[in-house]
Amino acid sequence: TAKWYASSATGPSLWQAGAASQALLMTGSMTGRTLFHSNCCCRMKNTILTSGIALAAALSLVGCSKEPDVVAVPDGAPFEVSTLITKTANDGIHTTWAADDAISLYHAVSGSADYKSDGEFKVDAALSGKFSGTLSESLDPAGTYDWYALYPYTADALTPASSAAGGITVGGLTQTQTGNGSSAHLSGEACPLYGIAKAVGASATPSLEMKNLSSVIRVNVTNNGASPLTVKSVSFTSSEDIVGTYYVDYTGGVPAYVKTSDSEVSRTATLRVKNGEEIAVGKSAQFYIAIKPHIAPAGTVLKLRVNGTENSYTLTSARTFAAGK
């Protein structure tokens, strides 16, 4: 009989399981060995926490003036976006943009909700962090604008305040990790990002800090059996739907998620492990699952399954699965 341990503020609790493994689901919100650990999930080929996006303003010379005057950037004018990675999540993992990466870009007159979609901005061939695209309308040189960005590019998301079109994937109903301890799958469409820069003058260069729209749980599995253990699947069930496809409104600072349909979301996140290595007796391995940020209230029965063997834990207080943590 295996023993599955989880620490709490008052000391460790003990779960009994029929599988010869010990699973520990940890959180960064408590000290020591604790039950839930949220890791940051971001995009690129690995994971990042923040990116700066710079939008180049256009200048032109008028008549014989010695000084350049800032003029309206016309619709259809080439526009360049450059990104600067300022901090990485999951220490030690190098982060780069991948070929064919693209973002959706939007703008609105400052303080208004009249969002304009500027469409797709694509990463440059050198993968240096520069993105290029065109504006959908001209900018008033005397005006100020709010800017919004979404990764990955989503053609149907015509507004950053989406509630009925342009669903994006958060986590995904089924995820695949290749090998023990790998977080390479925590990238791409399953881990979207958004960024906002407000009240930016038309002649200024906006800078958007990219933030996460997903959270990540890490499951630590320890082999307490008498023979090597290979993990083939891990699943986690919470108090509400935590993976699937959502319309996301991120204009208010705290993203709001609306499920696209009941059939496209689930309370259970499932991870398939491909080419998992044997875990020697007494050794451990880590497995990662991307989920929707949420708060599980006190009384929630959380369920964790490893290779089909289920263990449950009833929360005595609320637990927060925060985006990017």
Q: How would you describe this structure to a colleague?
A:
The protein is mainly β and 325 residues long. It is elongated. Strand 9 and strand 10 form a beta hairpin. The strands form seven sheets. The chain has an eight-stranded antiparallel beta barrel with strand order 5-8-11-10-9-12-15-16. It is 0% helix and 48% strand.
Descriptive keywords:
single chain; 325 residues; mainly beta; eight-stranded antiparallel β-barrel; five-stranded mixed sheet; 27 strands; elongated
Protein topology:
Blueprint: E1 2-8, E2 11-17, E3 22-25, E4 38-40, E5 48-55, E6 59-60, E7 69-70, E8 78-88, E9 102-109, E10 116-123, E11 130-134, E12 144-151, E13 168-170, E14 174-178, E15 193-201, E16 207-212, E17 215-222, E18 233-237, E19 243-249, E20 256-259, E21 265-266, E22 268-274, E23 284-291, E24 294-296, E25 301-306, E26 309-314, E27 319-321
Parallel strand pairs: 14-22
Antiparallel strand pairs: 1-2, 3-17, 4-17, 5-8, 5-16, 6-7, 8-11, 9-10, 9-12, 10-11, 12-15, 13-19, 15-16, 17-23, 18-22, 18-25, 19-20, 19-21, 24-27, 25-26
Quick take:
This protein has 325 residues and is mainly beta. 0% of the residues lie in helices and 48% in strands.
Number of helices: 0
Strand residues, percent: over 45%
Order of helices and strands: EEEEEEEEEEEEEEEEEEEEEEEEEEE
For the record, give the distance between the C-alpha atoms at the N and C termini, rounded to a whole number.
33 Å
Strand arrangement across the biggest beta sheet: 5-8-11-10-9-12-15-16
Overall form: elongated
Q: What is the averaged pLDDT score?
A: 75
Low-confidence stretches: 1-21, 26-74, 82-95
Oligomer: single chain
Structural class: mainly beta
Tell me the total number of β-strands. 27
